[in-house]
Structure formats: C-alpha cells, structure tokens
Specification:
Distance between the termini of chain A: 42 Å
CATH architecture of chain B: Orthogonal Bundle
Number of strands of chain B: 0
Number of helices of chain B: 8
Strand content of chain B: under 5%
Number of domains of chain A: 1
Helix content of chain B: over 70%
Mean pLDDT of chain A: 88
CATH class of chain B: Mainly Alpha
CATH superfamily of chain A: MetI-like
Shape of chain A: globular
CATH architecture of chain A: Orthogonal Bundle
CATH topology of chain B: MetI-like fold
Oligomer: heterodimer
Order of helices and strands of chain B: HHHHHHHH
Mean pLDDT of chain B: 92
Radius of gyration of chain B: 21 Å
Largest interface: A-B, 49 and 61 residues
C-alpha cells in the first residue's frame, strides 16, 4: 500500500474550503461561547436559588451528553419550535452551546477561587459594582483562565468535526466526500488529520503571544534530584 | 409538531438495551486505555531517545486530531493496510488508543507530584526499576489520579456515541433508527441523551465522592 499524492493534488481546493469553514465555525463559536459563558458566570454569582439551579442543570446537561447528540438535538429540535435553519447554523449553535458550558466552568472555577476580600475592598475604596468587576474581578479571572480556555478551544476545534454528521461542509465532511469519490481513505484521512493537527498548534501560538502580552510566562521550575529525574520525568528535555 | 410524551416513553423503553451496549463498549475501551496508557508512561520513563520521539509524534497526533478522524482511520484506512477489524473492534481500538494518550499525559503530570523519599528507599533496597514501578510508583500514582481517571471514563463513554457513524448499533444509532421508522427523530434522541446523562451523572457523583475521600485522607 502506497501513498497516492494525486488525491491531495487533485482535491486540495476542497480540503482548503473545508478547513476554512472549520476555522470560521470555531471562530464564531469561540466568540459566542465566551459571551454566553460570561453571562452564565455572572448569573451564577447572583444569589437567587432557582437561577443557580437552572445554570447547574444547563452545565450538567451540556457536559454530560455526547456532543454528537447535542448536535442532533439542536438540529432536529429547532423545527419543533417552528424554526427551520440550515445545518451550518444549527451546527454552529450546537458548538456555541458546547463551548459556553466548558468556558463557563473555567470562568466560574477561577471566579470562585478569588478571595471575597477583592470584591469587598474594591467596593470599600469607592468603586461601583461595575467598576469593581471591570478593574478588579475580570483581570484576575482572565489570566489564570487563559490556559484552560485555550485547551477547551482546541477541544472545540476537534469536536467541530462532528458537524459532518449533519452535512455541514467543514473539513471532515469534505474528507468524507473526497473519500467517496476516490476510495482512498488512507490518503484522505491523513491529509484531513494533518490539517486538523496544524490548527491547535496555531491556537497554542496565539495564546502564547497573548500570555507574553499579559506578562504571565511560567516561572522556572525547581531542580529535581537524579532519582526523581529518572522515574518521575518522562522527557529528557523536561526540567 | 409537538413533543409526544407517549412516543418518548415508548422509545425510552426500546433504547434501554442499547444503553448497555454503550456501557460495555465504554468499559472495554476504558480498561484497554488505562492498560495501554500506563505501559506508555513506563516506556516513556526509560527515556530511550528514538522510542520517545516516535511516542511523542504519536501523542501529538492523537491529541491534535479529532476522535472521529481517528475512528475513520481505524475503520476505513487500516483495512487497506491489511488490518480489517470490523466496525465495533475498530471503534473500540480508536477510542482506547485516544484515551490511552490522554491517560499517559495525566499520569505524566501527576508523577511530578510524588515524593522522592520512597524512591530513594526502594533504590537503596536494590529493587529493580520495573519492581519500583509496580510496587512503589504505580500504587501511589493511581491513588492520586482516580478522580481524573473517572473524568476520563465519562469522556470515553461519550466517545462511544461517535461509533454510530461507522454503523455500530448503540444508543444514538438505535435512536435514529426508531426516529426514522416513525418520522419523529426528536423524542428518541432525547431518550438517548437522557441515558448518557444518567451514566455520566453516576460517574460524576463517584468522582466527587472519591475526591472528598482523598481530601479527607490527606488531612
């Protein structure tokens, strides 16, 4: 079995088109998910039991069922409410909901870890609640949230492949179409995988740049004893 | 069209046996994943440069590409390399390999937190490296990572729903078949979602209990 490069050469515009759509869907879900997550996080700090319960149920449901089922539920559920939308829209909505739950979990966790005193003293020096959130709370939530948010964005990028199941013409779907035309699964799925492989690397780069800008590079770790180095470290280059 | 509760209950009953299919698929994949992941960790610790380089590329590939693509590679592409496993086995292999990588990575992170004193004692006693792994490191490591492993188990169970795409008849595919037969796709889907939710809530509750127990023991 050899690798037939013609598959790539003949169909690269289709792969590229799919990749572009994947990036666009992810970008929309990233922004939409962050906005939704911010609202959920803010709402979860309001002292009103039913609202809290509602948020907990939402988070548990979105995180507890497989993404592919969320996609189908949104896709087939919207017509129930009398709304008929193309697959691309329902798919993007599903991905946005998925992202919002995971983002909200991150923001909530870092928010809860913030000492109450931060809020109290911001108010004590005369900031309005809005100013306290803007100048004291948000900057402190944002920095520690960045690495887990990046991780979930990568997860979301990978999960967007599931939208192929409802015929959204993103990268995986284009791969399946090309595979149907060429009967060359090996070549097709390696190319598709290769393209997916690049996207998280780009996201990681973007985050690194953002982290540098925010001045939050990791501190140098302490030195390890030779024995610890032998058993507890899996990589030579690791310090 | 409105939600039919009658049809919903009916499909809920019809779906019950398929929930077991997902549980079984998930259990097999998870056991395989823990085994392979741990072996991967031990092999990596030997730090043989070429071996670790290959493993490194494999890990990066698995972490960087969607599970669906990995399932497609196992199901569609491996047969042309002479490995034809059928949809169920191919799916289990794909999910298990994927999860093994994530388990090895979480073990890598937790290894750093282990105390060195016991390693020194075991080395002073002349235990062989493999014995040190089996008797000293792994028991401590696994105690630490139980909550993370349970979390990984929920991911594995959710992953089994993707096998519907390669024709494995589990909850999602059964729900789609029921829905197609009655032209009502939504109710059975809600049923399938409910089963997944229950399975994962049980796992999540178990995770919390274990976390609390570990926290209590540390005190």
């Amino acid at each position: 079995m050899g690798f037939d490069p013609n598959v790539v050469l003949d169909y690269w515009p289709q792969f590229l088109e799919g990749a572009a759509l994947t990036v666009r869907i992810v970008a929309v879900a990233l922004v939409g998910g962050l906005i939704l997550a911010a609202i959920i996080t803010a709402a979860s700090f309001v002292r009103f039991a039913p609202l809290k319960a509602l948020i907990m149920v939402y988070l548990a449901v979105v995180r507890g069922i497989p993404f592919i089922i969320i996609v189908f539920l949104v896709h087939y559920g919207m017509p129930f409410a009398g709304i008929r939308l193309p697959a691309l829209t329902t798919g993007t909505i599903a991905l946005t909901l998925f992202a919002s739950a995971y983002y909200a979990e991150v923001l909530r966790a870092t928010g809860l870890a913030l000492p109450q005193g931060q809020w109290d003293s911001a108010r004590a020096v005369g900031m309005s609640p809005g100013e306290a959130v803007r100048h004291v709370i948000v900057p402190q939530i944002l920095r520690p949230s960045l690495p887990p948010l990046t991780n979930y964005t990568m997860t979301m990028t990978k999960e967007s492949s599931v939208l192929s199941a409802i015929t959204v013409g993103e990268l995986t779907y284009q791969g399946l179409v090309v595979q149907g035309n060429t009967f060359a699964p090996f070549e097709v799925f390696f190319v598709v995988a290769g393209i997916y492989w690049i996207i998280p690397a780009l996201i990681a780069r973007a985050t690194l740049a953002l982290e540098r800008k925010l001045g939050m590079e990791e501190n140098a770790p302490g030195t390890l004893s030779p024995l610890a180095r032998r058993y507890l470290v899996l990589d030579r280059r690791e310090r | 069209m409105s939600f039919s509760f009658g049809f919903f209950w009916e499909s809920l009953a019809d779906l019950a046996p398929y929930a077991l299919v997902n549980l079984q698929l998930g259990a097999i994949a998870f056991v395989l994943a823990v085994t392979c992941g741990t072996l991967l960790t031990i092999v990596r610790s030997f730090k043989i440069a070429p071996v670790n380089m290959v493993i490194g590329v494999f890990i990066s590939f698995v972490r960087g590409t969607p599970l669906i693509i990995q399932i497609f590679l196992c199901f569609y592409a491996l047969p042309s390399a002479g490995i034809d496993m059928g949809p169920m086995t191919a799916g289990i292999v794909a999910i298990a390999l994927n999860s093994a990588v994530f388990i090895s990575e979480l073990q890598r992170g937790s290894l750093r937190a282990l105390a060195v004193g016991q390693l020194e004692a075991a080395t002073a006693l002349g235990l062989s490296p493999l014995l040190i792994w089996a008797k000293v490191i792994l028991p401590q490591l696994f105690r630490r990572i139980v909550p993370m492993l349970l979390n990984e188990a929920t991911i594995v169970v959710k992953g089994t729903a993707l096998l519907s795409i390669i024709t494995v008849v589990e909850l999602l595919r059964a729900a789609q078949q029921i829905g197609a037969a009655d032209f009502r796709p939504f109710e059975p889907l809600v049923g399938a979602a409910l089963y997944f939710l229950v399975i994962n809530l049980v796992l999540a509750t178990a995770t919390e209990r274990v976390e609390r127990k570990i926290a209590a023991e540390r005190r």
